[in-house]
Design a protein that fits this description.
9 helices, 3-stranded antiparallel β-sheet, 6-stranded parallel β-sheet, binds ligand BV8, SIR2/SIRT2 'Small Domain', globular, Rossmann fold, single chain, alpha/beta
Length: 237
């Protein structure tokens, strides 16, 4: 079965073996930080220094983090599909840059990126790889103290939704990798894809909340399962 229009959705599980934490596993990020305090606009308004520290720590970990075999396999799949004239869209809930480090291009970061800052005063968004503090100055408008992490918090509109829904409408294959299926609207994408007639596959450490919606599932560490699935689909790289 050859697929010509593929949409991939990844979550924290694809980066787990690269040392970036997941959120809802044992010892996960939401077991050590209250989501309400560090991943909502209200939490940022209440205590910006706490939120800056939370994201500065994760941004600081980016430099040393390396992509794993799952990221590399997805980049290989994109090259193969596009060389064959097919369409490939990689949507990630992750704010790390490991897909890019693995060679993926045009990655849709629906929840934003650690290596980007957003100015609440002028709306500028741009590359930022240092710590953000209340004294950081906007490169565009010069405002001091208006810069925030360019990530999508709970209650905020994810990025790229129009492009994502268009991709799901046209997809003949939707693959979800390393996500618990707990956060919307990402957790609803498999339904959109099914309605469009796409074949749907879940590649995860264990069955997610959405397991019954998928046509097919393969379970185990992403570095093994994703690499094996891509090799089965297009041959070993
Ligand atoms: C919004 C910020 C309006 C950056 C994050 C219904 C419809 C619409 C909205 C809602 C709804 N119901 C509730 C809502 C509101 C809310 C929501 O979903 N709440 C949840 C808690 C119920 N959603 C929102 O507020 C969203 N905005 O709705 O706007 C709107 C409405 C409609 C249409 C458009 C807009 C905004 C959500 C974004 C919040 N920001 N992150 C950051 O700090 O990172 S979300 C947070 O959870 C993370 O960013 C992460 O991306 C996301 C999802 O988590 P996962 O990636 O799945 O990670 P998790 O730890 O949960 O799971 C890891 C998985 O990996 C597990 O399955 C595990 O088994 C597996 N795994 C582990 N190790 C491995 C592995 N797999 C393979 N290999 C391994 N080695």
């Amino acid at each position: 079965m050859t697929f010509r229009r593929i949409v991939i959705l990844t979550g924290a599980g694809v980066s787990a073996e690269s040392g970036m934490g997941t959120f809802r596993d044992k010892g996960g990020i939401w077991t050590r930080h209250r989501l309400e305090d560090v991943a909502t606009p209200e939490g940022f308004a209440r205590n910006p220094d706490l939120v800056h520290a939370f994201y500065n720590t994760r941004r600081g970990a980016l430099k040393a983090a390396q992509p794993n075999a799952a990221h590399l396999a997805l980049a290989r799949l994109q090259r193969h599909v596009e060389a064959d004239g097919g369409d490939f869209m990689l949507v990630t809930q992750n704010v790390d840059n490991l897909h890019e480090k693995a060679g993926s291009t045009r990655v849709v970061h629906m929840h934003g990126e650690l290596a980007s800052a957003l100015c609440a005063a002028c709306g500028a968004r741009g590359y930022w790889d240092k710590d953000l503090t209340g004294d950081s100055e906007c490169w565009s408008c010069g405002a001091v103290g208006a810069l925030r992490p360019d990530v999508v918090w709970f209650g905020e509109m994810p990025y790229g939704m129009d492009d994502i829904y268009r991709g799901l409408e046209l997809a003949d294959l939707f693959v979800s990798v390393g996500t618990s299926g707990e956060v919307y609207p990402a957790a609803g994408f498999v339904n959109e894809a099914r309605l469009a007639g796409a074949h749907t596959i879940e590649l995860n450490l264990e069955p997610s909340a959405n397991v019954r919606i998928f046509s097919e599932g393969r379970y185990g560490p992403a570095s093994e399962v994703v690499d094996a699935w891509v090799s089965d689909l297009i041959g070993a790289g």
